[in-house]
Amino acid sequence: MDDVLAGMDIKDLSRATIRQCVNTTRELERISGEKFVHLEFGVPGLKAPQIGIDMQKLALDAGIAAVYPPTGGIPEFKWNASAFINAFVGIGISPECVIPTVGSMQACFTLLMECSQLHEGRKAVIYISPGFPSHYLQSKVLGLEARILDIYHCRGKKLRPALEELMADGKACAIVYSNPNNPTWACLTEEELKIVGNLCTKYDIIALEDMAYMCMDFRRDRSVPFSPPYQPTVGRYTDNFALMVSASKIFSYAGERIGFAAISPKLYEREYPALKERYGISRFGDNFVLTFIYINSSGCSRSAQNAMSEMMEASVSGKYDFVDELREYARRAHRAKEIFYKHGFNLVYDKDLDQDVSDGFFFTIGYEGMPGSALLYDLMRCGICAITLTATRSDQQGIRVCVSMLNSDKDFEALDERLGLFVKLQSEVSE
Amino acid sequence: MDDVLAGMDIKDLSRATIRQCVNTTRELERISGEKFVHLEFGVPGLKAPQIGIDMQKLALDAGIAAVYPPTGGIPEFKWNASAFINAFVGIGISPECVIPTVGSMQACFTLLMECSQLHEGRKAVIYISPGFPSHYLQSKVLGLEARILDIYHCRGKKLRPALEELMADGKACAIVYSNPNNPTWACLTEEELKIVGNLCTKYDIIALEDMAYMCMDFRRDRSVPFSPPYQPTVGRYTDNFALMVSASKIFSYAGERIGFAAISPKLYEREYPALKERYGISRFGDNFVLTFIYINSSGCSRSAQNAMSEMMEASVSGKYDFVDELREYARRAHRAKEIFYKHGFNLVYDKDLDQDVSDGFFFTIGYEGMPGSALLYDLMRCGICAITLTATRSDQQGIRVCVSMLNSDKDFEALDERLGLFVKLQSEVSE
After folding, report:
1. Which stretches of A6-94 are assigned E, i.e. beta strand?
2. How confident is the model at residue A24 (pLDDT cuts 50, 70, 90)?
3. In sequence order, which residues have a C-beta less than 8 Å from that of residue A410 and are 6 or more positions away?
4. pLDDT computed for residue A197 by the predictor
5. Cβ neighbour number for residue A355 with a 10 Å cutoff
6. pLDDT tier at A96, thresholds 50, 70, 90
7. Residue A314: pLDDT band by 50, 70, 90 thresholds?
8. Within a 13 Å sphere around the CA of A372, how many CA atoms are in the beta-carbon half?
9. Mean pLDDT in residue range B361-373
10. Are A389 and A372 in contact (CB under 8 A)?
């Protein structure tokens, strides 16, 4: 294993990317001839809905492949996405302010670019961490300063002073976070989102709220359209926000790279002199479409827009219950956690204030205070792959577990057996 | 008309973007109840090939929508794109070095970003103009300096000193141009491409060669795979290059936003200390995939990759003659030019050295030395829409004509009739 790690140019396992971990595991699988238990991938583990596929094929048959999509999206997509947000998030964002993107990755990247050009000298981005490793990389590519706030230390009322410390110098232009959080599945409470929203207004900072896992806090039933409880959002507490929604997880439609940015109507209309001077266009929303999305990719796949539009329409009208489909992830998480607990592991990020975190797509696991890199190293020796919390910019010790690849009883049995091996290995080491 | 222009916030018609011209025309059509002759859109005017559509539907049926595409592209796409380049451009680029992108727009944007981060302090981009307006906007978004070289003044041997003047200070990192050129349909000759290539090597500048209109210089038959004459390319004269190919025009597949970057293998392998320091990855190609494409969109539509892959395979094996399909544009251009000539117009960019430019997707038209904005204004009064050469960063006077919307005899008759009105208007004015 040391040879393989050296061959992959990995000096510090705690900082290895998902891709590096995958490649290492693949090589070890090749050498040993045995399959690993894969807990590292954050890929959908469910099938794409047939209604989406059928609509995409219909659109192709109708000849849409030959025609450029409007950069701001096809009208039915914008309409249905607006209704979808209204039905499940419970806020009103008009169709004009909803723009389809090449996954929420493109939404976040282009929004970040625009946010960093609104005011001279404001080039810092605040990240509520731990988080999605690619989000930090976006800042690095754009030459922006990433300011990291580990949520572990500042839940509830502690959040306000911690955030203000990062905002007070007026250099921050945006704050990025996922809710539910990747990798901890911690969910910011309404109280916490209110703090974020108030501070965004106070310091004129834009909240970029990643809803990759929308409605996947399964502790309460969020499956009924136009009925509370809604997906929590900062959008109830400030006008300075944009939501980023992706079809990848909520509709298991990752292959077609489709999602959208839903921009607060007040922000969409807001005029910025710096944008006017640079691009001849004042409004935030017009620049997002005509400048940033346009020169980035000239919009996104037209047939995928039709597919996602149809899935949103079916969800809004109650024909398709996307939340119920996703409960499978919660069942897998529950079962996997039980196995980890049985072998003496513990949840690292375990609470939303006084409540246990939800079962969901990801959770975080530690073992008797072992450093993340040593823990991952020994787990890999026993045939289990994951990524460390360090790679997600957490200052806690442990690993991130994704349940999407745990597809069968056999996978859970393999996890149980290998964690047994791991525990045995630890007792041998300590002897 | 003046009211409509004022309402659209258009003060200088010569600088109006395509979108602004379209919106103005739409409003004028609404008011007058009469349809314009549309010469402004650069959209495909042909149907998407059935083989592409069929393969895309097959891929969707196979369940690919649920699975993230590999960031570097699916293997069959990479393989077929490599063969496609070999068959029609006549150079060898291995599949590893070919990466599908969300149209060539994304290819150019991400390549520009990477090129501007290779060396400290090299933030200028040279554009051979006139050109595609969005290309200049990409530089503006990235904060790069655009250096414009109007090809009108420096064809042939004059190209070398003109380019060296822009390169000599060592600040340029890339040169961007389309071949055939949008909007003039001028084609750089092998001699001129050799000059560009030699200078790219001498000054360590990367040529980003836009092949949106690949094989659409119809003066010679470029339709036979693996047979000369090939599409001319700078790739025969330097290792510092990347090709940008789009399915939008050559396969009339603009709706699905699919294309690719084909990076010179030597450039793909080249290690840059600045990249290593910033991203922990040295090689140009690895960074393009794992850093720039990844954080921009995590790859592109998987089903569209299958579609384009199939169309390229069919072209390479001779089952589908994409060049023959596109000859329709040349026929339309020939007929449209004859009508313009009949009414006293002239081609502005008329020659490739001693040869007439090819008939193709675009051409450039002037009238008795009239300034572009006055010409466009009077053409719009007569129900003809286009964009000025000024908007394409040309210093010549005239308009750009795109033939894609001239679909029927009726369209040509309308053009003829309205140019007649225009000539009458001019004689009235001069009386």
Report:
1. 37-38
2. confident
3. none
4. 98
5. 11
6. very high
7. very high
8. 24
9. 94
10. yes
Query: Are the beta carbons of A296 and B105 separated by less than 8 Å?
Result: yes
> What is the total residue count of chain A?
431
Q: DSSP label at B360?
A: -
Contacts of residue A68 in chain B, CB cutoff 8 Å? 43, 248, 254-255
**Alpha carbons B329 and B315: distance in angstroms, whole number:** 19
B293: tokens are 């494409």
Report the residue count for chain B.
431
Backbone φ, ψ for residue B366 (5° rounding):
-130, 170
Q: Provide the pLDDT for residue A250.
A: 96
Mean pLDDT of A224-237: 97
- For A154-203, give the DSSP string: --GGGHHHHHHHHHTTS-EEEEEEESSPTTT-----HHHHHHHHHHHHHH
Instruction: Write the CA distances from A391 to A17, A136, B163, B285, integer angstroms.
Output: 7, 11, 46, 23
**The tokens 């009211």 sit on which residue?**
B3
| Interatomic CA distance for residues A304 and A311, integer angstroms | 11
Is ipTM > 0.90 here?
Answer: yes
Please report the pLDDT score of residue B18 as a whole number.
79
Q: Which residues of chain B neighbour A297 with C-beta distances below 8 Å?
A: 102-103, 105-106, 109, 257, 297
Please report the domains of chain B, with CATH numbers, ordered by start residue: 2-41+322-430 (3.90.1150.100), 50-316 (3.40.640.10)
DSSP per position, B50-89 = HHHHHHHHHHHHTTGGGSPPPTT--HHHHHHHHHHHHHHT
The CB-based long-range contact list for B25-31 (8 Å cut-off, 24+ gap) reads B25/B380, B25/B385, B28/B1, B28/B4, B28/B380, B31/B4
Predicted local distance difference test score (pLDDT) of residue B22: 83
Q: Which residues of A367-382 are buried (b: 16+ CB within 10 A; e: fewer)?
A: beebebbebbbbbbeb
Shortest CA distance from B138: residue in chain A: A295
The 3-state DSSP class for residue B362 equals strand
Q: What is the pLDDT of residue B12?
A: 84
The verdict on a CB contact (< 8 Å) between A57 and B60 is yes
| Helix ranges, A241-293 (H) | 247-250, 265-269, 273-279, 284-287
Taking contacts as CB-CB distances below 8 angstroms, the residues of chain B near A74 are none
- Environment class of B327 (CB within 10 Å of its CB; exposed 0-12, middle 13-18, buried 19+): middle
